[in-house]
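#struct-pred

JT: dropping the chains for the assembly here, can someone run the whole complex?
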Amino acid sequence: MLSTEKLSAYYGMFQALFGISFFAERGEVVSLIGANGAGKSTLLRSIVGSVRVAPSDVRLDGHAVGGRSEIDQLARGIALVPEGRRLFPSLTVEENLVLAARNGRSGPWTPDRLLRELPVLKPLRSRPATALSGGQQQLVAVGRALVTNPDFLLCDEISLGLSPVAVEAVYALLATVVNEGMAIVLVEQNVRRALAKSSRYYCMLKGKIVLEGESKTADYARVSAAYFGD
Amino acid sequence: MQIMAETFLNGLMLGALYAVFGLGLSLSLGVMRMINIAHGDLIVVGAYLTSVVMSAIGIGPFAALVLVVPMMFGLGWVMQILLLNRVVGRDALAPLLLTFGLSIVLQNILQELFTADTRSLQAGDLASLGFEFGGVSIGVLPLLSTAASFALLGVTHWLIGHTHFGRQARAVSDDPDTARLVGVNDRRFFAVVTGFIFSLIGMAAVLYALRTPFSPTAGPERLLYSFEAVVLGGLGNIWGTLFGGLVIGVAQLFGAKISSGLGPFFGHLVFLIALLAFPQGLFRRSAS
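RK: done, full complex below.
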């Protein structure tokens, strides 16, 4: 289980997160819902070590693992798909995947398997990664985190700016992943989609969690109210 | 006409060496966003190191490389871990100041150890070998040196394009924050890159010291030629750096033909004119 306990995070003097307590079990999908600036991305970045936090703020199976580098967290099985995809333009599609696979853990996901599961990428494997369409790039970005074989895959705004067809392709890939026991933490701005794709949700506002619960029984009106802070 | 051809050919050979000087500079700029002002002094350090190894064991310059290259790699690795990693990645000024200071320290250490006298490396019989080709006389040593320069550029190009080392280098160069997300330990990787650059410097130093006598204060001028090769070719492009080096080398030797003291001046002049005409360098940045 990956959890945070009263996690607080700062950018210099500015406090971005105020005592966030959150957890995700292996094999479940948890969504983080909230408006721009609510702190969703900061929470993910705190967990993977891009934002410094206290050791006891982040726990993996009960052990304090906060404040460690991205490299340490990757070795523990926590990987982030960053907002905006952030593929390496100087590397081909395949090189983006191979680089991550070599530095990550061994497991069922390899660049070869990923290209088998996503036949649309196969003929594009030797192209520069950023020469692909937005949806294809997002598949590569998710794949790049996937081939490090994490237990917990954190996805930041993976449907932003994509066509509905492309969004479905990305979520189809995630469905395969969850079936094999990986946990996914989704940051989504689209409330309906977030609730439809997850088993539990947390709603964030101004650096705090203001509402949480089961996605199936979530009251859309209440979530919307929490989203906008009414 | 013959003299022209000879000068041109020698210029190309000298230029290939400048390209190897520039290669190390280009790599540290491309991967670490760091300009190493002590680059030229490290070339001189490599030359003295080779000279010491040669006289200590009594071997030739090329055999000495077997020891010099690993020693330079170690020096680069340690220097990155202990010193350069403290300033890299913050702003452009801190590495400039640090390596500027390093340049002064290195020059003074060399002067303390080896006096201000010039030295040169002796290649033995190889130095006097040569042949005629179409009425143009070509030395075997410069030819070998040029072949070695091309080989170094080619091997580096291949490493960057086709190995895990190269993929990491390009990823860090594109986006260091995201590179950490896919497990590139940038600090440790930088130490390997600097070790590699120092190894290149070691090899370039031997090629340089075989053709030109060197002294502890010869570094800054080498740095200047390296810079000219890199900037002229366009940043981050290995073959551009080669072309830049060749242009500078040819310009210097034709300048020296006009008046023996004016070689470097003509190199600088051509560089200045080319820079005014092509402020981005002759080649745009490519995948390498």
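JT: nice. Chain B has a mean pLDDT of 91. The CA atoms of residues 81 and 191 of chain B lie 6 Å apart.
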